[in-house]
Each structure stands twice: as structure tokens, then as C-alpha cells.
Amino acid sequence: MITIGRLARYAGVTIKTIRVYHAKGLLPEPERDSSGYRRYTARHVIDLIKIRTLADAGVPLARIRELRAAPDADLHQALRDVDADLTTRIRNLRRTQKHLRRLAAGDADLLPPEISAHLDRLRELGFSPRWVELQADLWVLVFATHPETATELLHDQADVLADPALRQIFLDYDHAHDLDPHDPFIEELAGRMADATRDRYDVDRLPGQDTDSDIPALIQGTVNASSPAWQRLDTLVRQQLHD
């Protein structure tokens, strides 16, 4: 008969672990002796070593409890299942590690290659670093939440930038960031933006304006929050489109 401390040493676990196994029904608690101490037997040592071995191998504690009295075939199948699960987890962890290393080395981006190329194009066209950084953040959001439509939206943006008149509107919008919201240029630009939107789109079904998603509103809110002038532009354009 041995004490819980000696049992822990024999099995290579802590006393706290043994108590956890007792609480979860993995290891039956022995009767107490006349002094009130639990006294363990060799059977407890053997059972505890088996439990520890399975736990160290990755078998969930709840599954160990089920397998304690199971036939050997069930135990072997459970171990094969755990092995398959570990193989999948290792593969995923290696993929994650590889991606993290690429990010750390500066060889990868949060965005698909086509977005990186789009941002490079914005720089070439003369857009401000502030605008490029804002666009990068917004495209992260779009690709994360709406991957099925993000590419279509990107192509639409490329078409817009290929049109000199539309491209100038976006350049003027970028420039307007630091203007006074009541600068006359703001009203003139809002008129051009509204006209261009009506000419290019159905104003009731603008690109990305999915009625089941609040992402477009979040994006516009982010843009408006960065500049009072942009906020007034948004208000004026919306008014003109719905007059």
C-alpha cells in the first residue's frame, strides 16, 4: 500500500494530476485507512501509467475514460484516430509556420498578388501614400469577408483607373482629404462623382452593395472617419444620387 505522493513519483505525474484523474473518473479513488489517508496499490500504479501514456500520446481525457474498459481493438482504433488527427494538425502547423516565416522575411503579403499589383499601380498613378495604405487595409477587409466578389470588385476598380476622367476623380478625391469640408471644390467634386456614378452604374445596385452585408457601410464609415471633407463628399453624393 502506497501514499498518493509515492504513486505520483512512480507514475511520473503530479499529485494534482492524480486528483484531476480522480475527479474525471479516470482513476478510481481507494478507500481511506483508519488514519484517513488514501492508500494505493500496484493496480493503481499500472492504471495510472496507462492513463498517463495515453494522455501523453494525445488521447483526450474523455476518450481515455471510455476506453479504460474497452476491448483492445477499440483502443488500437482510437490510437489510430489520434495519430491521423495529429498528422493533420502537424501538416497545418507546418503550413502556418511556413507562411509566418515568409511574412517575417517580407516575402509574403496579407493580400493576393493581384492586389499588391493594384497598389503598385496606384503609386505609379500619383496617389498619396495615405491613400495607398487606406486601400490596402480596405482590400484586406473585402477579401477576408467577401472573397467570392472581391476579384470582381478589383477588376471594376482597374477599369475605372484606366479611364482618364474617372481616374482624375479619384485623384481629386485623394487630394480633397485635407481640404476644408466647405471648400467650393468639395461641391464641384461631389457633382462629378454623382454624374460618373449614374453614368457607370445602376445607383440602386452599386458594386459590392450587398443588402445582406454591413461591410460596405463599415468601409465607407472608415473612409469618412479619416477626413471631414470626405465625410461631406459622401453626404453630398448620396443626396445627389437620390434626388
UniProtKB/TrEMBL annotation:
Transmembrane segments: none annotated. SUPFAM superfamilies: Putative DNA-binding domain (SSF46955). This is MerR family transcriptional regulator. Residues 1-70 form the HTH merR-type domain. Coiled coil: none annotated. Gene3D superfamilies: 1.10.1660.10. PANTHER family: HTH MERR-TYPE DOMAIN-CONTAINING PROTEIN, REDOX-CYCLING DRUG-SENSING TRANSCRIPTIONAL ACTIVATOR SOXR. Keywords: DNA-binding.
